[in-house]
Amino acid sequence: MMKTTSKVNIWAPGDWNAFFGFGTNILVNLLVLTGLLRIVLKMPDELVFGRILPATGLMLFLSTLYYAWLAYKLAKSSGRDDVCALPSGISVPHMFVVVFVIMLPISLTSGDPVKGWEAGLAWVFIQSFVLMLGGFIAPYIRKVTPRAALLGTLAGVSIAFISLRPALEMFMTPVVGVVCFLIILASWFGGVRYFNGVPAGLAAIAAGTLIAWGSTAMGLNYGGMSLDNVSASFANFGFSVPVPAIGHVFSGFEFLGVILVTAIPFGIYDLVEAMDNVESAAVGGDSYPTTHVLTADGVVSLIGCLMGNPFINAVYIGHPGWKSMGGRIGYSAATGVTVLALSWMGIIALMASLIPVVAISPILLYIGMLIGAQAFQETPRSHAPAIVLALIPNLAAWGKLQIDNALDAAGTSAATLGLDKLGQSGVLYHGLEVLGGGAILGGLMLGAIAAFIIERELVKAAMFAFAAAACTFAGLMHGQAIGFAQSLPVTFGYLGAAGILLVSAKYAKAATSTSEEIIVASDELIEDAQEA
Questions:
Q1: Distance between CA atoms of 225 and 209, rounded to whole angstroms?
Q2: Terminal Cα-to-Cα distance of the chain (whole angstroms)
Q3: What three-state secondary structure class fits 455?
């Protein structure tokens, strides 16, 4: 229960829960990132553990410390003791985009993974400035956009890119995953306390690790644990601090044409995502200035980039989840300090070999559940259809990604196979491609149009339809590349919809007036009947 107080407590009992939950979330991302760098990009360990991870750790440290300080300021100015810091970390969608769309093709073409790393640095450099400049227009966008659109598109990201993968991993190894998931649900939803207050996240990871290693001892190998992997991980121990990589950043600009195709639209993606997450925190009771948030993400990403980190920083989905666990200010700063130590000491490789990822996945699914639920709980009931509409572009983007990955594994592509052939099998690939292109922005636009129509504010709906047409024309949504005259059929569709909405506006008003007159007339008849 919230109290007013003049003293700000940096650490609350619930910070332990949030620390282990959020910390393991960050750890999972670092473990995945390490695997992408070493296995997919085949970067040497001295580059991964000696340059990239120390720079990533520095960026995460600066980010989490800043958001802890921002929460401290809010708690002090408001006198509340329930202020929760915004979670932040490596942007997960960007992590895969920069690896597979930028770094991998350039590494393969040049035959040099260092060239791929340099291209990734240049990519983040450009995105950092998009974020910083976008911070000044984001508050206005947030002001004019319905909450259903902001939270609805966020729920789409949550379901498609936060929840589905952990859920699939859990049921691929259910002996570990389902057990850990129920341990978390019983505590964070059911109020169960474990072992004199041990955080549920830690209890779940401990149980999952014991089951995985126990099954390995019995020859069943649930969780993929191996003593050989543990022994090999000790080779990466050692103290490494980040060193400037400015020369490498500017070397990456030789690939500027490839970089701009995704850097600008994904910078805008970050802009919208940050607005959504700030809105989510505001719904949870903690209002943070959007401009400060976006500027901070841009600045810490730029610092990390100049020190050798090719991944963007972002405010995370999940503030309501960490707050519901009792997280306040300390969990954010503690996570940053821990990540700094792990990345600078080379401990990430050891942890990757000891902890099964499937034991951590349920925490991500829990966060996804909360975010998806919040979109419906914190908006008017009548806006539920708008939320569902805002979800769909992200589901389309997820579906296209699965198809692309499957075809790539088979050594082919949608273009090679043929869209007609896919269509004959019921796979509407082109529809997924168009609807899922720029899914975050597309979901926001569609959700806003629907919400304003529901509210009979057709002129505002038309304005968002015009904005959607402009964004589509520029390739920011419903397309795969930035440029003029992109996705023209969709652009004309939005323009037509905007025109119809404007023409319909006066008739909607007339219909509303007629309805009001009918209601007034009915009330008068009832009064007459009562008097009679």
A1: 9
A2: 54
A3: coil
State both tokens at 496: 């037509």
In 492-520, which positions are buried (b, 16+ CB within 10 angstroms) versus exposed (e)?
ebbbebbeebbebbeeeeeeeeeeeeeee
Q: pLDDT tens, 231-276?
A: 877 776 777 889 999 999 999 998 887 777 666 656 666 777 787 7
Handedness of CA 108, 109, 110, 115 (dihedral sign): negative
Secondary structure in 3-state letters for 469-508: HHHHHCCCCCCCCCCCCCCHHHHHHHHHHHHHHHHHHHHH
Least Cα distance to 36 among 102, 132, 125, 129 occurs for 102
In this prediction the pTM is 0.72
Residue with tokens 């190998």: 221
> Which conformational region is residue 181 in: left (phi greater than 0), alpha (psi within -120 to 50 degrees), or beta?
alpha
Structure tokens at 146: 């319905």
**99: CB partners within 8 A, 6+ apart:** 36, 37, 40, 41, 120
The rounded Cα 365 to chain-centroid distance in angstroms is 13
Residue 315 DSSP SS3: strand
Distance CA 169, CA 167 (A): 5
pLDDT tens-digit readout, 274-291: 877 888 898 888 999 888
Mean confidence (pLDDT) of the chain? 86
Q: What angle do CA 350, 353, 356 make, to 5 degrees?
A: 130
Distance (Å, whole) CA 433 – CA 98: 19
Token pair belonging to 414: 């949608």
C-alpha distances in Å from residue 360, one per residue of 20, 180, 314, 420: 10, 8, 21, 41
What one-letter code names the amino acid at 174? P
> Which 8-state DSSP code applies to residue 198?
B
